[in-house]
TrEMBL record:
One of its GO terms (biological process) is lipid metabolic process. The lineage of its organism: Bacteria, Pseudomonadati, Pseudomonadota, Alphaproteobacteria, Hyphomicrobiales. This is Glycerophosphoryl diester phosphodiesterase. Pfam families: GDPD. InterPro entries: GP_PDE_dom (IPR030395), PLC-like_Pdiesterase_TIM-brl (IPR017946). Residues 12-261 form the GP-PDE domain. One of its GO terms (molecular function) is phosphoric diester hydrolase activity. It comes from Bauldia litoralis.
Amino acid sequence: MFQLLARDTGFVHACGHRGHSIGAPENTIAALEATAAQGGTSAEIDIRATADGEIILLHDDFLDRTSDGAGLASNLGLAEIRKLDAGAWFAPEFAGERIPTLDEAAECAAKRGIGLVVEIKEERRVDAFLDALVALITSSDIAVHAVFISFDHTVLKALKARVPNVRTEGITHARHVDFVAVAKAAGLDSLSIERGMFRPEDGKALHDAGVAIRVHVERPTVLARYQAVGEDIGATVSEWIEAGVLDSVSGDDVGFLVGLGAGRK
């Protein structure tokens, strides 16, 4: 079972953001495989619906940035999307990589022993999307291996009302007055907090309430700019990991996260 709290796992998750997206095309099976190869223990992925209601991995509304397709993914059926190349844009060696379904991603993650942090990106046909997601969850064991996350906490609350055993994580981009109240309002199991908005005392309060915490860390090239002017953000994150105030650290470079102290010991 994919456990969220470090006190249950014995380690802080090293979570690949859209998979190990610094080394493989995001939201692909290759990115999930690379996450595991780099020592990652979970992978954040994004999901949307096709025109025929299938759930696929894709961050953007549009297909053009991460594939050789064009237009809205929601206007194409799964059969058409399966024909697209989702790897060549990243590097020639990934040519032929496809946009996977959530089912396929879950199968890969289970095989490689990593959890899935599944971000719901659908904004248009939310009710139909939830119907499809509930059907997938209730007909498989994905709920054991995943936590479902979103900026829209009302969607997460609706999902949990329909599938009570599902774990949910709310994304926040602000330092709320009371993070625990935010989590309780939507029945969340975890919160994703921006690195710049996180404080250790917030982590302690959330842990006391039984709520897990994920913090996202920028790429090493970004952190290097801060380090050059005397601010070692990586060292601060390592201190948080050591202090036990985090449960998951996500980023594009999984190997870098492992170097900070995340991942299995």
